[in-house]
């Protein structure tokens, strides 16, 4: 009996053991953890950064191929299934799941950082650098991340809703692994998914906590010691764990809706009170530049001039999205039952992307305008601490304190809802895909998420968070390439009537 | 079924070797053989000198086969394929391995073309079965046949030929992709097992033992693997029409023909 229990819970125990070793190691020897993770991270970037670029481009091409080919008419579910959510509700949930904290963190700061620190072939703080900054912000938050999510969510949705398998990554590899999905090979795949989810989500939570802390420091002069950031993580952990353990699903849904409403209100407010026509100009021009250069940017690592820049930004983002993909993929799959592959792919690739572009145009574009034409020195703030830029930016608008508080509230709610969902997803991944996750697993994964985020912050801050996202994503990227193959096998068998 | 066989021959062919082939072909039901030589216009040898062909004819006649000698010109493989059709031959017999490696290589390209072009089944003699020297030749009693089938309607074409082989054992092999989920896989496995059982029953009267199996994986790799494991003498395959992206005679057939140690009987 105990043997059966251990066998059934193998994914849980292996994943938890790895994460526990990581936390203990990071607690005892943060310096050594930094050295080890730096070496692994450097090795991955030195030898495989090209693979990240190729894979992300391939995922996009493959998604579009599925949508526009004969497979586009296949439904994610039984033929009689109808979509559970209205189109608007579905898109809102897609957006909330896919981006969240990151948009708030990078919305203002990314275009600004590119503007001030462009690759070496561009002069800093020039119109060219501004245009480059906007274009690359669109690129990093554009269609590629959603293509990455699409691969995982399509695979899970197809194999679980249409083929009746458990909602696990290993299930999607049945055409390759066969019955071995129930053995060690399948367990390894699910452990990799857990590993990627933990580090991807911990990275986002780390960003969120850093920025909430920065907000309090900026507004109320709270100490900038890392212990305060840890305190914020502890409080947020208590909130999201209570939510996850008590199963307040409706509460989380309500929080998500409130968050989306607050985010859209903030967007409209900044658009209305900022230089509206200039923002719209930026949106249109950057969209043109993005569409025109997408192939070049997709495969560009600037090997002769700015290889490091590409690694620091593009590769980091692709890795981050990949590490988020098991979590977001499972969530998106769950809400997309009953939609056709064409409807799913085309909507997921376009609607949230356009909203994100608009977000960056409003926040990033306005920040660049303030910097360029109104002489507001946001660059100096960014140089000091990138997490402060959002609050320094909001300072230039009426009711700035209120706006900053709203931003902090948004970050906190995003933190709670993301971590809550991640906890449930991790529980499901380690319970054979079951939607009914035991409380002790939710508690363990919730604590693990926060533990990892704290350890990463203590051992190296923002840089550590980025490094671990890249490292954790690497093995899962290989799994994703296999997912494309198995998905194609499944779809082609279905069309061939086998 | 194998009554009339066309054997393409070239200058330098050894009469004793051809005699061994003749004995074996006779054991498999051959009554007449058409020795066919394609004269290349730039050839070093004079077209009028056909004494060597006469020697070969005599050697085969000793076996008790009715021999006809024919000659043609032009593209070697096309000419052989055309002649086999016009002569109403049941099969073309090709020897893949020659005395000199260069000969094997030169013949290799002809074999490839012939396998692709021929409308008549082609038997490619490889390392197995070993043709013994002497008067007995290789007999049905020792023959192990591997029949690789994808169970489509087209792949049933080799069945009448397989029946003619008789032999000690026939192993039917179906290689396929794994289905995308366990329940479809189970259904597919049962369905294939049933079909294979049907083929098994059809072939049982002709062989001492008939077995079948289904495998998952790359068809060519699995066919080669099973052929070696079984020590098969002949691998029987159907030739598929090539698509724009596939090898000229189908990826599986091409790889099996190139790499198999067992002889190949390819049915177009």
Describe what this molecule looks like in 3D.
Chain A is mainly alpha-helical. Chain A has helices spanning 2-8, 10-28, 30-68, 87-98, 101-116, 127-140, 143-162, 169-172, 174-177, 184-220, 226-246, 249-273, 276-299, 307-335, 341-373, 378-384, 389-394, 400-429, 439-495. Chain A has one domain (12-495): Up-down Bundle (Amino acid/polyamine transporter I), CATH 1.20.1740. Chain A contains 19 helices and no strands. In chain A, α6 runs antiparallel to α15. The relative contact order of chain A is 0.20. By secondary structure, chain B is α/β, with parallel strands linked by helices. Chain B folds into two domains: 4-125, HUPs (Rossmann fold, 3-Layer(aba) Sandwich); 140-267, HUPs (Rossmann fold, 3-Layer(aba) Sandwich). In chain B, 39% of the residues lie in helices and 23% in strands. In chain B, α6 links the parallel β7 (169-176) and β8. Classes of the chains: A mainly alpha (498), B alpha/beta (268). The interface between A and B is medium-sized, with 15 and 11 residues.
Annotate the secondary structure layout.
The complex is a heterodimer of chains A (498) and B (268).
Chain A: H1 2-8, H2 10-28, H3 30-68, H4 87-98, H5 101-116, H6 127-140, H7 143-162, H8 169-172, H9 174-177, H10 184-220, H11 226-246, H12 249-273, H13 276-299, H14 307-335, H15 341-373, H16 378-384, H17 389-394, H18 400-429, H19 439-495
Helix pairs in contact in A: 2-3, 2-10, 2-19, 3-7, 3-14, 3-15, 3-19, 4-14, 4-15, 5-6, 5-15, 5-16, 6-13, 6-15, 7-14, 7-15, 7-19, 10-11, 10-14, 10-18, 10-19, 11-18, 11-19, 12-18, 13-15, 14-18, 14-19, 18-19
Chain B: E1 4-8, H1 15-27, E2 32-39, H2 51-63, E3 66-73, H3 76-86, E4 91-95, H4 101-117, E5 122-125, E6 144-148, H5 159-165, E7 169-176, H6 182-203, E8 209-216, H7 219-230, E9 234-238, H8 251-259, E10 263-267
Parallel strand pairs in B: 1-2, 1-4, 2-3, 4-5, 6-7, 6-9, 7-8, 9-10
Antiparallel strand pairs in B: 5-10
Helix pairs in contact in B: 1-2, 3-4, 7-8
């Amino acid at each position: 009996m105990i043997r059966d229990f251990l066998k059934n819970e193998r994914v849980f125990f292996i994943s938890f053991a790895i994460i526990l070793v990581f936390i203990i190691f990071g607690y005892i020897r943060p310096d050594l953890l930094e050295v080890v993770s730096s070496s692994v991270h450097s090795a991955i970037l030195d030898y495989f950064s090209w693979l990240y670029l190729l894979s992300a481009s391939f995922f996009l091409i493959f998604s579009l191929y599925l949508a526009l080919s004969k497979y586009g008419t296949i439904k994610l579910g039984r033929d009689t299934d109808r979509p559970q959510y209205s189109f608007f509700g579905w898109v809102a949930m897609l957006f909330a799941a896919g981006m969240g904290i990151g948009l708030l963190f990078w919305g203002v700061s990314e275009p600004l950082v590119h503007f001030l620190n462009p690759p070496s072939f561009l002069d800093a703080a020039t119109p060219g650098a501004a245009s480059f900054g906007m274009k690359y912000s669109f690129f990093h938050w554009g269609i590629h991340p959603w293509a990455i999510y699409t691969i995982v969510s399509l695979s899970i949705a197809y194999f679980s809703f249409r083929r009746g398998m458990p909602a696990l990554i290993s299930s999607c590899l049945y055409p390759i692994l066969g019955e071995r999905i129930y053995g060690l090979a399948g367990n390894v795949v699910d452990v990799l998914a857990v590993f990627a989810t933990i580090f991807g989500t911990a990275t986002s939570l780390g960003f969120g906590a850093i920025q909430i802390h920065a907000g309090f420091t900026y507004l109320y002069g709270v100490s900038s010691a890392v212990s305060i950031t840890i305190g914020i993580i502890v409080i947020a952990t208590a909130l999201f764990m209570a939510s996850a353990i008590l199963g307040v699903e409706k509460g989380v849904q309500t929080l998500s809706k409130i968050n989306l409403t607050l985010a859209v209100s903030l967007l409209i407010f900044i658009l209305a009170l900022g230089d509206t026509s200039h923002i719209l100009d930026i949106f249109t021009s950057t969209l043109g530049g993005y569409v025109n250069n997408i192939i070049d940017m997709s495969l560009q690592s600037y090997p002769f001039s700015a290889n490091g820049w590409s690694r620091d930004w593009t590769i980091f983002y692709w890795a981050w999205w990949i590490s988020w993909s098991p979590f977001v993929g499972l969530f998106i799959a769950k809400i997309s039952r009953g939609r056709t592959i064409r409807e799913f792919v085309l909507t997921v690739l376009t609607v949230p992307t356009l909203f994100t572009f608009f977000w960056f145009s409003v926040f990033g574009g306005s920040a660049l305008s303030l910097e360029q034409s109104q002489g507001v020195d946001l660059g100096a703030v960014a140089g000091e601490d990138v997490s402060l830029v959002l609050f320094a930016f909001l300072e230039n608008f009426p009711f700035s304190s209120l706006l900053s508080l709203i931003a902090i509230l948004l970050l906190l709610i995003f933190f709670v809802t993301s971590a809550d969902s991640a906890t449930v997803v991790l529980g499901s991944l380690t319970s054979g895909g079951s939607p009914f996750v035991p409380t002790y697993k939710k508690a363990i994964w919730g604590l693990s998420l926060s533990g990892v985020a704290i350890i990463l912050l203590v051992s190296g801050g923002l840089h550590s968070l980025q490094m671990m996202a890249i490292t954790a994503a690497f093995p899962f990227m290989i799994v994703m390439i296999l997912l494309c193959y198995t998905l194609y096998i499944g779809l082609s068998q279905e069309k061939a009537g086998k | 079924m194998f009554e009339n066989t066309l054997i393409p021959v070239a200058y330098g062919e050894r009469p004793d070797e051809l005699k061994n082939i003749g004995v074996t072909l006779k054991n498999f039901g051959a009554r007449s053989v058409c020795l066919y030589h394609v004269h290349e216009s730039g050839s070093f040898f004079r077209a009028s000198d056909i004494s060597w062909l006469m020697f070969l004819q005599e050697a085969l006649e000793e076996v008790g086969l009715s021999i006809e000698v024919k000659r043609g010109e032009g593209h070697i493989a096309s000419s052989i394929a055309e002649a086999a059709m016009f002569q109403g031959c049941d099969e073309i017999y090709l020897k893949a391995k020659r005395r000199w490696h260069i000969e094997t290589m030169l013949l290799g390209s002809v074999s490839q073309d012939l396998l692709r072009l021929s409308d008549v089944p082609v038997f490619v003699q490889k390392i197995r079965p070993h043709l013994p020297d002497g008067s007995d030749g290789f007999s049905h009693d020792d023959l192990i046949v591997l029949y690789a089938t994808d169970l489509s309607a087209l792949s049933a074409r080799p069945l009448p030929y397989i029946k003619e082989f008789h032999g000690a054992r026939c192993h039917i092999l179906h290689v396929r992709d794994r289905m995308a989920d366990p329940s479809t896989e189970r259904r597919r496995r049962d369905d294939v097992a049933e079909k294979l059982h049907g083929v098994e029953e059809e072939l049982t009267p002709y062989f001492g033992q008939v077995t079948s199996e289904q495998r998952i994986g790359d068809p060519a790799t699995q066919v080669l693997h099973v052929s070696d494991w079984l020590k098969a003498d002949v691998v029987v395959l159907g030739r598929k029409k090539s698509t724009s992206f596939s090898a000229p005679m189908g990826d599986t057939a091409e790889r099996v023909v190139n790499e198999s140690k067992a002889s190949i009987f390819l049915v177009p």
